[in-house]
User: Fold this.
Amino acid sequence: MMEEKPVEEQAPGQEAADEPEALVRDDEVTALQDRLLRLAAEFDNYRKRAARERAEYVALANEHIIGGLLPVLDDLERALNAAEQHEEAQLEEGVRLVHRSLAALLERHGVQAIETDGKFDPHVHEALLTQPSEADEGSVIDVIQKGYRLGDRVLRPARVVVAAPLQEGDG
Assistant:
């Protein structure tokens, strides 16, 4: 004969109470996992949409600027045609027209030349040389290459020659 083990007594309704509590927790975990997956998918869609919109903005900006450059290209072709015909006065005028057109286009888009009068500013100037001069030490005395800014951003610093103090015997 088999020995019967005593059955542990449970409080009435204890087993029934544990099961629904576990089911509720499983349901909550499943709901949270589902919510997390949806949120991840929404974020991925947002990221892709933002990248697509950025690419569209860049393409539109490029189209706008290139459209503005086409008349400059036309002016340059006219200047080259004048050069082929050895019409120096027309060539010079053509090159000036191209320069004015391009400068006006850049200005319309917010590009400004960096000022080079006065003191050297390392934020907007690049000192290529220092040269003894009677001008105030540290002032810009010559411009090698003009610099430009777009709004507050420096596109290219102005490359300049900066005044150094005169040496004994100079002058």
In short: The domain at 112-171 is CATH 2.30.22.10 (Nucleotide Exchange Factor Grpe; Chain A, domain 2).
